[in-house]
Write a structure and sequence with these properties.
- The chain contains eight helices and ten strands.
- With 254 residues, it is α/β, with parallel strands linked by helices.
- The chain has one domain: Glycoside hydrolase/deacetylase (TIM Barrel, Alpha-Beta Barrel).
- Helix 4 crosses helix 5, helix 5 packs across helix 6 and helix 7 crosses helix 8.
- The relative contact order is 0.17.
Amino acid sequence: MIPRIDLNADLGEHDGAPPAAARDLLRAVTSANVACGWHAGDAVSMRLTVSEAATLGVQIGAHPSYPDRAGFGRRVVPMSPTEIADAVAHQVHALCAVATAERAAVRHVKPHGALYNLACRDRQVADGIVSGVLLVDASLALYAPADSVLALAGAAAGLHVVAEGFLDRAYEDDGTLTPRDVPGAVLDDAAAAAVRAVDWMRTGTVRTRTGRVLTRRLETLCVHGDTGDAASIAVGVRAALAAAGVRVLPALEA
């Protein structure tokens, strides 16, 4: 079997029409996690991003967050599991309504920022996210790091969990992402990202910031939309994977 991988990016993280860099990134990936307005984006950005993604055959996903536009969703907002479930459901419902109007469909959910990171180690937060997804549609897939608390919570609830890895972020020895305020946490070298992607697909492993080898089964690789020159990273990664014989396809394509 020829190996395959999905290449995803966080998109729609702007108000109004997408800038050229965002459109270039959308053309380079196979699935898009669309901001739902709580950390970034608005009704116009959601509609235009969904419309173009559907035209390009890019899989559409919701990218819900804490209510934190001032902090771009990267600050933890104290919320109960029920409040998290309601917040996630509200945001996913909003994107689904946009997609329906554009004759498209939302296929997955990937939490954003602090909500995603905390859910990877806090079962109550993870269960709140999962409950929110289930309030909307149990057939939606959940993007989460392999073997994380979020992945385990999703699987326990019967969701289709898609194992995710990050090309533009450093890892700690416990498998979590290096905090952004640590030097070297964000990796924006396009050539290095391409090498990392191919090596990850060949070996099933990635090195941490300290050099430790982590085994991570992957179904999707992420490039953050706000990483410097994200479009060039995604283009280079996709070309390198294709040259290595890896098929780059949406995670949920039959």
